[in-house]
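Re: that chain you flagged

S.,

Sorry for the slow reply, it's been a week of failed gels. I finally had a moment to sit down with the sequence you sent. For the record, here it is as I used it:
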Amino acid sequence: MASASPLRGWEAIRAADGIGICVTGTVIVFVALTAISLFIALLPHLLAALGPWLPEIHSHHDQPLPTASDSSAEQTRRLAATVAWARHQQRP
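Prediction finished late last night. Pasting the structure tokens below so you have them in one place:
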């Protein structure tokens, strides 16, 4: 009995519809990346439109600077936190 030789190279690709699969996969990836890019580009406009309904989040960065009415211990604590933050920002 004669054995059929396995397909190799372009013959195998054409036999398995490899070109169609490759084109389909490329189109899917291109469409997905385009959709992600458009979403990122439109996100500031979307968030501006949703702004009235989204709550404002305050962080510890919004705290006021110490005043003369603050206690000495409170001023020392805030100064230490400021120095630690500045030192942290200088790290490589």
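What I noticed first: The chain has a mean pLDDT of 83.

Talk soon,
D.
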